[in-house]
Amino acid sequence: MTEQWFADAETAVRHDAAAWYGAPVECFRAVADYRGDVAFAVALGDRPLAPAGLSGAVEPVPLEEGVYRQNASGSWQSWLFGSGGGASWKSMRQGGDLGVVSLAEVAPEGAHAVVVEWRGHEHMVHVREGLVLFTAWDETSDCLGGSDALEQAIDKRFRELAGGSNQGITGYVGDDPELMGLVEQLEHTSIAPKIVRVIGHPR
User: Fold this and answer.
1) Measured between alpha carbons, how far is 17 from 83 in angstroms, rounded to an integer?
2) Residue 114 and residue 183: Cα distance in Å, rounded?
3) DSSP 107
4) Of 1, 124, 185, 186, which shows the fewest CB atoms inside 10 Å?
5) Which residues, 6 or more positions from 45, have their beta carbon under 8 angstroms from its beta carbon?
6) Residues 133 and 118: beta-carbon distance below 8 Å
């Protein structure tokens, strides 16, 4: 996470992802959804990359995300930044009870839009920069269901594997049966937005 301010959240998340992987900014494309002075942004790498200092943890499809805040002059900086992909909830304000639910995925090849189901309703989401990004704002932290105990167990196991880092979990899940089992249990207890239809010509 950089300390710089940028013209928009897309530029900011590209720089944060580049700093995390020790790669050129040009390796990343990004999209963002805005809500006033808060934005949720996602960056996608164009090649497999390993986080700086973790050469053994290559991410086949680097996908990083974060919540970004705007200052009085209109510039943007990361407030929360971490590994992306799938569904998540992140707080919009420090200590606040409300946040943003997101679904960030690499778009199916050939798709120009998808339909995302969330809370019994369907939402059309257009593909941007090869990414699907759905956001729902002002949601409480328990809106995805799941289990606090499972999430804590996943975090603990990941930190054991990653030496204290809290990013890049997808680089470890497939290599550790214990972590994989915990993630699968969490998925079965979660209520999360999901893609239900693809619009276009997927291959």
Assistant:
1) 9
2) 25
3) P
4) 124
5) 17, 21, 23, 27, 28, 59, 61, 62, 63
6) no
- In the chain, % helix, strand, coil (3-state, to 5) comes to 25, 40, 35
CB 114 within 8 A of CB 198: yes
Q: How do residues 54-112 score in pLDDT, each as one tens digit?
A: 766 788 888 999 999 999 999 999 988 887 788 888 888 776 788 999 999 999 989 99
pTM of the model: 0.76
Separation of alpha carbons 18 and 14, rounded Å? 6
DSSP letter for 50, please: -
Residues 6+ apart with CB under 8 A from 101: 87, 88, 89, 118, 135, 136, 139, 143, 144, 192, 193
Distances (CA, A) of 11 to 108, 148, 188: 24, 33, 35
Output the six-digit token pair for 60: 């086949």
